[in-house]
Amino acid sequence: MVCEKDQLVQKICELYDQISSLESLKPSEDVNMLFTQLVLTCMPPSLIDVTKLCMKIQETRSKLIRLCGEAEGHLESHFSTILASYTNPLHHLNIFPYYSNYLKLGQLEFDILTKHCSEHVPNNVAFVGSGPLPLTSIVLASSHLTTTRFHNYDIDPSANAKAVRLVSSGPDLSRRMFFHTTDIMDVTDALRDYDLVFLAALVGMDKDAKVRVVDHLAKYMAPGALLMVRSAHGARAFLYPVVDPCDLRGFDVLSIFHPTDEVINSVVVARKVPTTKHNADNPLAPTKVPNKFLDIEMFDPLLNHVNLMEEIDIEEKLS
């Protein structure tokens, strides 16, 4: 008898085989259909732990994440080009098929930010890996952080050029949004200027690369500044890399949120630890992580917040 987890992994592997055989991952009927199937397959809340899968499946997962990243880049570039053809591109963002997801994710991340940064509104925010369609920055700047300056970093000059064309049409956003074409690993002192840094899900496509970026941010971010990292949970970890709390050396992990609706990414929020005589010699030493029974939350807009303890209890009953 095949268990539910085995069926799920088998389905994902079948979709990987079909996706990897495509000649191009640019938007097309076949590409759209297969990735829609993949997302719908991975979306339902799942108790699967991808770290415990066999090596062959682990390798397939790594390849699939890279394919998803490539396809996502093509999709954003495609729609950024379409939007740029409008006189006022910012008035037509809803043509992007996942725009509503960004609205929900933006609301979630703003709620998290409010919880941990209630004393003042961030003056300067950095978004690392903003891409050709910087919807997170646009949504937050337009609807939530309406006086904040956003500095968007991307290594791809064509992505930034497309993003600039979109934002330049807005008299307010064009004054508060800036774009930097550079590898974030080459950015040092400037990182101290930001109250909040967002790390996109696809910056650092594997664990080692992600940890290198996080360590770099830990070295140069201002003490007390917040870091918001996109992660994934359950079967959604076949779509995006997972960031474990232990990966965030030099930060105190404050909360981890796992959406259970169509918002795919989990959100991890952490605070850069102050430099003290105890950690000055080893700024990347392990720091405290949240109590797993109190701070890790499942998020559903219909149910508000459901504590992960319920998930743990269910898993214990099933095991």
Overview of the structural elements:
One of its GO terms (biological process) is nicotianamine biosynthetic process. It catalyses: 3 S-adenosyl-L-methionine = nicotianamine + 3 S-methyl-5'-thioadenosine + 3 H(+). This is Nicotianamine synthase. Keywords: S-adenosyl-L-methionine, Transferase. InterPro entries: Nicotian_synth, SAM-dependent_MTases_sf. By secondary structure, this protein is of the alpha/beta class. The protein has 2 domains: 4-93; 98-312, Rossmann fold, CATH 3.40.50.150. 40% of the residues lie in helices and 16% in strands. It is built from 9 helices and 9 strands. The protein has helices at residues 4-20, 29-42, 55-84, 99-116, 135-144, 157-167, 173-176, 207-220, 308-318, and strands at 124-128, 149-154, 177-181, 196-199, 226-231, 251-259, 266-272, 296-300, 304-307. The protein has a 9-stranded mixed beta sheet with strand order 3-2-1-4-5-7-6-8-9. The radius of gyration is 19 Å and the shape is globular. The two termini are 16 Å apart. Residues 291-319 have low confidence and may be disordered.
In CATH terms, the superfamily of the largest domain is: Vaccinia Virus protein VP39
Q: Find the structural class using helix and strand composition.
A: alpha/beta
Helix content: 40-55%
Count of discrete structural domains: 2
Protein name: Nicotianamine synthase
GO biological process, one term: nicotianamine biosynthetic process
InterPro entries: Nicotian_synth, SAM-dependent_MTases_sf
Family: Belongs to the nicotianamine synthase (NAS)-like family.
